[in-house]
Amino acid sequence: MAAPSTPSIARAAAWMAVALLCFTTMAVSGREAGRVMPIADLLVWRSLIGFLIVLVILSFPSQGFAQVRTARPGMHLIRNCGHFFGQYGWYTAVTMIPLAQLFALEFTSPIWVALVAPLFLGERFTVVGFAAIGLSFIGVLMVVGAFDGAFLDDLGAGQVWAILASFGFAVNMIVTKKLTSTESSLCIMFYLTLMQGPMGLIVAGGLPMVPPDTVTAFWVLALSIGGLSAHFCMAQAFRYGDATLVAPMDFFRLPLIAVIGMIFYDEPLAWAVLLGGGLIFLGNFLNTQRAR
Asked: Which of 18, 133, 178, 190 is 20 to 30 A distant from 154 in Cα terms?
């Protein structure tokens, strides 16, 4: 059983900062590898490589495989079904729409978390917290162009996949917070890689495609390591802060990925992205002050 951790906003924020960098690595790697390989095959390789990394870590003599003993296999299964669904939608969308738009649509997940967490996790929910989340969500709408009349006209399969992914990720966030009360972060990562590998094989309909060249293999490896590290860091962040505090911190990915999209993929960086990012930052700041 994981030892209880003393709540700490600073530690939760630090773990989430590292998670943001890892999620950004995942986005770039997923776009590049997804141009060559089917999404289900990428998810199989990600789980396989991640599982091998976790096994190596567990082989060290400190606590070993005792860390992955669990009395909550059903909750792990629920978490990983939600996360696999979210992953599949996210990696499908990353090859179809601009990175900033994908991240903005994904950021509807904390909205669902903030609304549902008080019911399932017993966390306090205040008017200030609701206003902070609402302000951040308005920023997200600005980024995707919801106020210029073009959003609904441009709504396509990529946007739909991104929205569906947000539901899967919301399930993942809520159940992760529930699991961190009894499970170590490494235990959560173990069952993530153990369960999602077979899920990928089922969707792929057989053994995964082998990366056809060295460059694609590099992107698959970066995707796998970045994904594993991101979720370890997020689990650690949830250990030190409430879900209604940690989940909105993920909004900081938006301005970061918007700049990367502009530099490496010639995706336009419009004023709405900057203004929307400012509202997102303000919402996170208010939420942090509310938590203090």
From this structure: 133
